[in-house]
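Why do we bother with holo predictions? Because pocket geometry can differ from the apo form. Keep that in mind while you read this record for 2'-deoxycytidine-5'-monophosphate.
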Amino acid sequence: MIIAIDGPAGSGKSTLGRMLARALNLLYIDTGSMYRAVALATIDAALDPADNDAVTDLAQRVDMDLEGDPDSLRVWLAGRDVTERIRDDDITEMSSIVSTIPGVRRAMVARQRELGKRGAVMNGRDIGTVVFPDADIKFFLDAVADERAERRFKEDLLVNPEATLAQTLAEITERDLRDTTRSDSPLKIAEDAIVIDSTGLSIQEVFERMMEHVHRNH
Ligand code: DC
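The structure, written out:
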């Protein structure tokens, strides 16, 4: 079974994706962390992110690995554990930039199809539209930008005491704009997706709604 979860930053994809994977005993694959690993490799190699050919070439050969349970997923890049590093601000921004490059997307989509072929809960921006258009269930999670920024801000504060809500909101708004307007595989709602607006809902409430759909359909 493939469950696709797409949606903008801060919409709850990772929390809910983990919960669903655990409840259904499926692999959990966070595709955002793959674009983040490419972003880190781009920075480490001092490549110009505008050099599409060089970044595509890097994405095709990059040695990355996702491993572990849904709750303790680790991301490895060339044998180095980069799980924490890829959450830094510079990587967040760079991942949104390198993910606009068609060659980078092709390389990641091929890996994602391979990783998910035995069934998975997979989250990202284009899972229900491009990676697995025949997914068994497609969710599109959303919430108003202010609330998404507030959720993300609480996480940001844990690692950066100088973070401000205004700054987090500005970053989320900029990233959403880039992710929804890029020409290759922009974030959009698949025709057959179940849209859940989590504004004002608790995590548990969203989880229960998602599980209802899973049980109704399977
Ligand atoms: O889900 P995330 O915030 O960790 O993703 C980081 C960036 O990667 C996001 O700004 C857009 C890109 N991304 C993508 O283009 N397609 C995906 N399937 C997942 C992420």
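Residues 9, 31-32, 35-36, 95-96, 99, 124-127, 175, 179 surround 2'-deoxycytidine-5'-monophosphate (CB under 6 Å).
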